[in-house]
Amino acid sequence: MTQSDRLLFAHVGPGSRRGSGGLLGSVMWLGGMVATLVAMVVGAVLAVVTAAAVAVIALIAAVLVFFAGLAVRARRTVTRRSRRADDVIEARKVDGAWVAYGWERTGR
Protein backbone atom coordinates (compact mmCIF):
# COMPACT_ATOMS: atom_id res chain seq x y z
CA MET A 1 0.00 0.00 0.00
CA THR A 2 1.42 3.38 -0.98
CA GLN A 3 1.25 6.57 1.03
CA SER A 4 -1.66 7.93 -1.06
CA ASP A 5 -3.59 4.66 -0.56
CA ARG A 6 -3.14 4.97 3.19
CA LEU A 7 -4.49 8.52 3.07
CA LEU A 8 -7.45 7.53 0.90
CA PHE A 9 -8.50 4.47 2.84
CA ALA A 10 -7.40 5.46 6.33
CA HIS A 11 -10.94 6.00 7.63
CA VAL A 12 -12.29 2.72 6.18
CA GLY A 13 -12.18 -0.20 8.51
CA PRO A 14 -14.22 -2.16 11.05
CA GLY A 15 -13.51 0.08 14.03
CA SER A 16 -12.89 3.41 12.36
CA ARG A 17 -15.13 6.44 12.65
CA ARG A 18 -15.09 9.61 10.63
CA GLY A 19 -14.12 12.66 12.50
CA SER A 20 -16.16 15.85 12.53
CA GLY A 21 -13.79 17.49 10.07
CA GLY A 22 -13.97 20.85 11.80
CA LEU A 23 -14.78 24.00 9.88
CA LEU A 24 -13.72 22.58 6.52
CA GLY A 25 -16.07 19.61 6.91
CA SER A 26 -18.98 21.91 7.72
CA VAL A 27 -18.24 24.15 4.73
CA MET A 28 -18.01 21.13 2.44
CA TRP A 29 -21.29 19.74 3.79
CA LEU A 30 -22.97 23.11 3.22
CA GLY A 31 -21.51 23.29 -0.30
CA GLY A 32 -22.84 19.80 -1.02
CA MET A 33 -26.31 20.81 0.17
CA VAL A 34 -26.26 23.97 -1.97
CA ALA A 35 -25.13 21.98 -5.02
CA THR A 36 -27.89 19.43 -4.41
CA LEU A 37 -30.53 22.14 -4.15
CA VAL A 38 -29.26 23.86 -7.31
CA ALA A 39 -29.35 20.54 -9.18
CA MET A 40 -32.91 19.92 -7.99
CA VAL A 41 -34.06 23.39 -9.08
CA VAL A 42 -32.42 23.02 -12.51
CA GLY A 43 -34.05 19.60 -12.93
CA ALA A 44 -37.46 20.98 -11.98
CA VAL A 45 -37.11 23.91 -14.41
CA LEU A 46 -36.09 21.56 -17.21
CA ALA A 47 -39.07 19.30 -16.46
CA VAL A 48 -41.47 22.26 -16.63
CA VAL A 49 -39.92 23.52 -19.89
CA THR A 50 -40.17 20.04 -21.42
CA ALA A 51 -43.80 19.68 -20.34
CA ALA A 52 -44.62 23.09 -21.82
CA ALA A 53 -42.93 22.16 -25.10
CA VAL A 54 -44.92 18.91 -25.31
CA ALA A 55 -48.15 20.84 -24.61
CA VAL A 56 -47.38 23.37 -27.36
CA ILE A 57 -46.59 20.59 -29.84
CA ALA A 58 -49.86 18.84 -28.96
CA LEU A 59 -51.80 22.09 -29.42
CA ILE A 60 -50.23 22.75 -32.81
CA ALA A 61 -50.96 19.16 -33.90
CA ALA A 62 -54.60 19.51 -32.80
CA VAL A 63 -54.99 22.74 -34.78
CA LEU A 64 -53.40 21.09 -37.81
CA VAL A 65 -55.76 18.11 -37.63
CA PHE A 66 -58.73 20.48 -37.23
CA PHE A 67 -57.82 22.45 -40.35
CA ALA A 68 -57.15 19.24 -42.30
CA GLY A 69 -60.64 18.06 -41.37
CA LEU A 70 -62.13 21.34 -42.56
CA ALA A 71 -60.24 21.06 -45.85
CA VAL A 72 -61.45 17.50 -46.44
CA ARG A 73 -65.04 18.49 -45.67
CA ALA A 74 -64.83 21.51 -48.01
CA ARG A 75 -63.40 19.33 -50.77
CA ARG A 76 -66.22 16.80 -50.44
CA THR A 77 -68.84 19.56 -50.50
CA VAL A 78 -67.35 21.14 -53.62
CA THR A 79 -67.23 17.79 -55.44
CA ARG A 80 -70.86 17.01 -54.64
CA ARG A 81 -72.04 20.43 -55.76
CA SER A 82 -70.10 20.31 -59.00
CA ARG A 83 -71.62 16.92 -59.84
CA ARG A 84 -75.20 18.01 -59.14
CA ALA A 85 -74.91 21.39 -60.86
CA ASP A 86 -73.91 19.67 -64.06
CA ASP A 87 -76.91 19.02 -66.37
CA VAL A 88 -74.95 17.00 -68.89
CA ILE A 89 -74.55 13.29 -68.23
CA GLU A 90 -72.53 10.72 -70.11
CA ALA A 91 -74.53 8.19 -72.14
CA ARG A 92 -73.51 5.40 -74.49
CA LYS A 93 -75.53 3.24 -76.82
CA VAL A 94 -75.20 -0.42 -75.83
CA ASP A 95 -77.12 -3.05 -77.87
CA GLY A 96 -79.66 -0.57 -79.12
CA ALA A 97 -80.33 1.05 -75.73
CA TRP A 98 -78.87 4.16 -74.23
CA VAL A 99 -77.00 3.65 -70.94
CA ALA A 100 -76.36 6.74 -68.79
CA TYR A 101 -73.40 7.02 -66.42
CA GLY A 102 -73.31 9.38 -63.49
CA TRP A 103 -77.07 9.91 -63.33
CA GLU A 104 -78.61 10.16 -59.89
CA ARG A 105 -82.20 10.77 -58.93
CA THR A 106 -82.70 13.58 -56.48
CA GLY A 107 -84.42 12.77 -53.25
CA ARG A 108 -82.95 9.29 -52.86
Key terms:
two-stranded antiparallel sheet; 2 helices; mainly alpha
How are the secondary structure elements laid out?
Layout: H1 3-8, H2 22-85, E1 90-94, E2 97-101
Antiparallel strand pairs: 1-2
**Assembly form of the protein:** single chain
| Structural class assignment | mainly alpha
Q: Tally the helices.
A: 2
What low-confidence regions span 5 or more consecutive residues with pLDDT below 50?
none
**How are helices and strands ordered from N to C?**
HHEE
The residue fraction in helices comes out at 55-70%
Shape: rod-shaped
pLDDT averaged over residues: 80
The biggest beta sheet reads:
2 strands, antiparallel
- The whole-angstrom Rg is 40 Å
Number of strands: 2
Count the domains.
1
Q: Report the portion of residues in β strands.
A: 5-15%
Quote the distance from N terminus to C terminus: 99 Å
Q: Largest beta sheet: what is the strand line-up? A: 1-2
